[in-house]
Design goal:
The complex is a heterodimer of chains A (707) and B (259).
Chain A lengths: L2 E3 L23 H8 L2 E9 L16 H4 L11 H4 L17 E4 H7 L15 E3 L6 E3 L8 E4 L2 E2 L18 E7 L14 E6 L8 E8 L2 E11 L2 E10 L1 H6 L7 E16 L3 E19 L9 E21 L2 E5 L2 E11 L2 E21 L2 E21 L15 E23 L2 E12 L2 E17 L2 E12 L3 H4 L11 E15 L2 E19 L3 E20 L4 E16 L5 E3 L6 E10 L4 E10 L3 E2 L4 E5 L4 E5 L8 E2 L3 E13 L4 E12 L7 E3 L6 E3 L6 E9 L1
Chain B lengths: L1 H10 L2 H9 L15 E7 L4 E3 L8 E11 L6 E4 L11 E2 L7 E2 L3 E11 L14 E12 L2 E13 L6 H8 L3 E6 L5 E2 L2 E10 L6 E7 L3 E2 L6 E7 L2 E11 L5 E10 L1
Parallel strand pairs in B: 2-9, 11-17
Antiparallel strand pairs in B: 1-3, 3-7, 4-8, 5-7, 6-7, 8-9, 10-12, 12-15, 13-16, 14-15, 16-17
The chains are: A mainly beta (707), B mainly beta (259).
């Protein structure tokens, strides 16, 4: 009956009403077998034709993409088609001050869980919490950042149960990460931007892959060229976990997690335009009935049901004429989340229509104008009976909180126009920009001025700077007229950044940045008005990204972040470290291809311990037979768990046979030399505590048969 | 907001298991063990207090604070307590309190207090179910062992419909009795199967707990469970039930012999 208390933001905190897991190693050995046993992945790739053995001998001097054993590389006689890659129309972007880009080939070799979308966890400026796929960027909360698949902003990039991206890695071309000072076309964010850019025009040969990841899921992927100017990607994934896990449930318990997702893409490259049309489906849920400390029935069990899903349909159209490029990417999404535990329930449906339009006009060789507009219509329908977490502080207890009944049907419209003027004057590039925006729930029309400059003062070194305002709307529940405070203001942040990009040695690049980020009018929970625009926050730090990449046998990087993030939750509140404050974060990442058969790679991470709030008073709640901890507001986030160092390693061996190849990959994921996690375990009455040790080390073996 | 919710549920998988696995801890958490001063609950003399209208005669509630201590523990001291952001209703403790009940493994203490029900203008009634709450709090201690009690008392509005399941309970109060082991009879030492049954239970959410002086109980919230490490000798077991909606509260304590 351990009380597990962390600094995670349980917005509705229903999860804390869930079982307090007893120190008995999860009700038996069965569950442990599932997660500490070998993970077996079998991937069968069937090809429409037998690959030429010559094409399977990677040339160490060719590109990383060409190193792929997957036979998407066109045969020699089709070399002329290699030139037709990507969009027919050149994709134009404003030069950025803070940007990291990584190819899918590199990312999936080193990213956590092999998931390309999680590779930002290894970049400077990010803080990742155990078990979470999203990252906190430069002191922001994880949900202050925006996630895109090309130009489509998805409700949730990560499938919530497996924690991996809903877009299959094979469909991704590269990942782009903007930790701050991003372009004016991205609004409603005080954090950063993470964008997955998908493939389309580079698909020539049919390619199919069937994967059984025991015990998690079964997936199928297929891509092929339909006509000379169109391609298609079809992918689906279905969990197999439910049958496996439920087999280990004890009598009287039910444990049925499930998920499924699908990704369909059609790409058309016409004479005057290109169009990439996507349908994305994601559905996940869980049914649980387990023995729990917070049980409300005499059999000692608690039931918990959860389901979440969304469907997104959108298209990205690009057309160009002369010096003008135009992109239109309308998409519609509908998402739904339901959960219930005991008598508490929460059902929400969100329908959203987004119409972003973007154009680039080349005035002259040195002068480009980027501009666009964005229209968003969002309808939120919410029914809930939930505990009101207001004024309970960091140790929110849903059972002891007042419950509120919500029935909200609200619509929101957002509109924005933006322009960036990019002018190059010799070695100097200047890019002032302005974003004007409004939202139906906030009467005030607002604007974000931004400015970026880059100066190439030598062939190998570029100085850069950025300053700008980045504004974000309060969350729908916070600004809701029925539940929150409709008088909340925009949340504003100012990003300051200076940096130096260098080509240090052959194939070594360095990106050093200093940043300061100031927030004002962030939302504070208040006992009377529920929410107030009264939090100020500051994050400042140094980031260094030192990267090696020569398209040869190895690649890797070192990323280091020094940062301090503090906040003041109201005019009379003390200044305290933010939940996202971690002074030092170091990541060393590498992968080395020893020869045609062997590869070795891994990650090493060191991080300052997470902050947490100590308890200085505990009350016995007689109505629920539980103990409620209380903290002193002056002690919020005043202590830290231990610093932690962890390593992940893998070895890959390719076994080549006459007509097929077997790839074996094995290793350890997140072995902690110093055990630490943001969660603290307390005994039943909080008289004793100990640090949790985070996730156990997970050894895995992956087998892939390539036919 | 969706992403925010999902961040919670995202934890529900990896973190759920991670915490479960990492819960093979060095320090045991033993809420079932009476090894120090322990709060058990608060019994009300009624489950249907009605708030008087302004100027009407005062309505009094009688509350009984129940605690247990290991046998031989020092005298319990008590006094008023204050809690940040919570205003407690004043309590008056009678001069003559019930005598402590000494069992084989631990001692049961009861402290009876009265308070007045706030008038309607002093309360804010929920539009959800038409009820309001007020809080009482008190401090009990033996040396450095301190139990800070908080109890929320549900109050109905005069003239409002009272939950029929609750009013039914008032006529026939919720009961709980231990079926196994049987009082004063012998059972084999080691592992003892505990079972109890409710009486006059209605459509409420119930929270069970077991309290013992030795050994450990893996699932203290189930009405039938196993008690391990029962040493031979005279032993005591206590079962408690609470109605989470009604505030109903009852318990039974028995002694038996483990051989």
């Amino acid at each position: 009956m351990w009380q597990v208390v962390g600094q995670m933001d349980f917005s509705l905190s229903l999860f804390k009403a869930l079982p307090k897991l007893r120190g008995n190693c999860l009700e038996g050995i069965g569950m442990r077998l599932v997660f500490s046993s070998v993970f077996l992945m079998i991937s069968l790739k069937s090809l429409s034709q037998t690959a030429d053995p010559q094409t399977e001998q990677p040339d160490e001097n060719v590109s990383a993409e060409a190193e792929q054993e997957e036979p998407t590389s066109p045969p020699a006689e089709k070399v002329e088609r290699i030139d037709v890659t990507g969009s027919r129309i050149q994709k134009t972007e404003v030069d950025q001050a803070s940007k990291i880009e990584i190819s899918r080939e590199e990312a999936e070799l080193v990213a956590p869980s092999g998931d390309v979308a999680q590779v930002p966890k290894l970049f400077p400026g990010t803080l990742a919490r155990p078990g979470e796929s999203e990252v906190s960027i430069r002191g922001s909360d994880a949900d202050d950042s925006r996630y895109f698949i090309d130009d489509l902003e998805v409700p949730n990039l990560f499938e919530p149960l497996s924690g991996t991206s809903v877009v299959p890695s094979k469909a991704i071309n590269n990942l782009v990460f903007y930790p701050g000072n991003f372009a004016a076309e991205y609004g409603n964010s005080t954090g950063g931007v993470i964008k997955l850019e998908t493939r389309g025009g580079d698909i020539f040969e049919p390619y199919s892959e069937f994967r059984l990841n025991v015990p998690i899921y079964l997936s199928a992927y297929h891509e092929q060229e339909l006509t000379d100017n169109s391609t298609v990607i079809v992918s689906g994934r279905k969990s197999t976990l439910e049958g496996f896990v439920s087999a280990f449930a004890e009598d009287g318990q039910v444990f049925l997690p499930y998920f499924q997702d699908a990704y369909l893409q059609h790409y058309y490259d016409g004479d005057s335009f290109t169009a990439k049309t996507r349908f994305i489906h994601s559905l996940s849920g869980a049914e649980l009935k387990i023995f729990a400390e917070r049980s409300t029935s005499t059999d000692g069990t608690t039931e918990f049901d959860f389901e979440n899903g969304y469907n997104l349909f959108g298209t990205d159209i690009e057309l160009g004429s002369g010096g003008l490029n135009l992109e239109i990417a309308p998409f519609i999404s509908r998402s739904r989340t339901e959960f219930s535990v005991s008598d508490v329930f929460f059902n929400i449906e969100v329908t959203s229509l987004n119409i972003p339009v973007r154009k680039q006009f080349e005035v002259s060789r040195d002068f480009n104008i980027f501009s666009g507009f964005e229209l968003v219509y969002q309808d939120v329908n919410l029914q809930a009976l939930v505990p009101d977490r207001v004024s309970q502080g960091p140790f929110f207890d849903p059972e002891n909180a007042d419950k509120i009944l919500l029935d909200i049907d609200e619509s929101t419209r957002r509109q924005a126009v933006w322009s960036t003027f990019e002018y190059r004057w010799g070695n100097l590039l200047l890019a002032p920009s302005l974003r004007l925006f409004s939202q139906s729930s906030i009467p005030e029309l607002s604007y974000d001025p931004r400015f970026i400059a880059r100066y190439n003062y030598s062939p190998s070194q570029t100085l850069k700077m950025g300053i700008g305002q980045f504004t974000q709307s309060p969350r729908p529940e916070e600004i809701s007229s029925e539940y929150g405070n409709e008088d909340l203001d925009w949340i504003r942040s100012i990003h300051y950044m200076v940096g130096l990009e260098s080509n240090v040695l052959n194939n070594w690049t360095s990106d050093l940045q200093l940043y300061v980020k100031n927030w004002r009018d962030d939302v504070t929970e208040d006992a009377l008005q529920r929410y107030l625009s009264s939090t100020t926050r500051q994050s400042k730090g140094l980031e260094w990204f030192f990267r090696y990449s020569n398209l040869g046998p190895w690649f890797g990087w070192l990323s280091y972040t020094y940062s301090e993030t503090e906040e003041k939750r109201g005019p009379d509140a003390p200044t305290v470290p933010s939940d996202n404050d971690a002074t030092h974060i170091l990541n060393i990442v590498g992968n080395y291809k020893i020869n045609d058969s062997w590869q070795i790679g891994g990650r090493l991470k060191h991080q300052t311990g997470y902050v947490f709030t100590p308890i200085n008073e505990v009350w016995y709640q007689s109505n629920t037979d539980t103990y409620q901890p209380i903290s002193d507001p002056n002690l919020v986030n005043s202590e830290r768990v231990e610093d932690t160092t962890s390593a992940s390693v893998f070895v890959q061996k390719d076994w080549k046979y006459e007509s097929w190849k077997l790839v074996t990959r094995f290793g350890l994921e997140e072995y902690q030399f110093t055990k630490s996690s943001p969660n603290i375990n307390y005994n039943y009455d909080y008289s004793e505590r100990e640090l949790t040790t985070g996730l156990p080390v997970i050894p895995y073996i992956e087998l892939r048969a390539i036919l | 907001m969706i992403r925010r919710i999902l961040r919670v549920t995202n934890l529900s998988f990896l973190l759920f298991f991670g915490l479960a696995l990492s819960s093979c801890d060095d320090i045991e958490s033993t809420p079932e063990l009476v090894d120090k001063l322990r709060a058990v609950g608060v019994a009300q003399d009624s489950l249907t207090y009605v708030s008087p209208e302004d100027g009407a005669a005062a309505v009094t509630a009688t509350l009984t604070f129940v605690l247990v201590t290991p046998n031989g523990a020092g005298p319990i001291e008590s006094g008023a307590a204050e809690k940040t952001d919570t205003t407690f209703r004043e309590l008056t403790f009678a001069a003559d309190q019930p005598a402590a009940e000494v069992y084989a493994d631990f001692t049961l203490h009861r402290f009876v207090a009265t308070t007045t029900i706030p008038s309607q203008s002093e309360l804010e009634f929920s539009p959800l179910d038409g009820t309001a709450y007020f809080d009482v709090g008190w401090r009990f201690s033996i040396g450095s062992d301190v139990e800070l009690f908080q109890s929320r008392i549900k109050v109905y509005q005069s003239g409002e419909r009272i939950d029929p399941t609750i009013s039914g309970e008032e006529n026939q109060p919720l009961g709980i009795s231990i079926l196994n082991p049987t009082e004063n009879l012998s059972v084999p030492a080691g592992t003892v199967t505990l079972s109890a049954e409710l009486s006059n239970d209605v459509e409420d959410n119930y929270r069970i707990s077991w309290l013992v002086g030795v050994g450990s109980i893996e699932r203290i919230r189930t009405i039938e469970t196993d008690w391990e490490g029962v040493a031979a000798g005279n032993r005591t077991v206590m079962v408690v039930v609470r109605g989470l909606r009604s505030n109903a509260f009852n318990y039974q304590v028995i002694d038996f012999v483990a051989e």
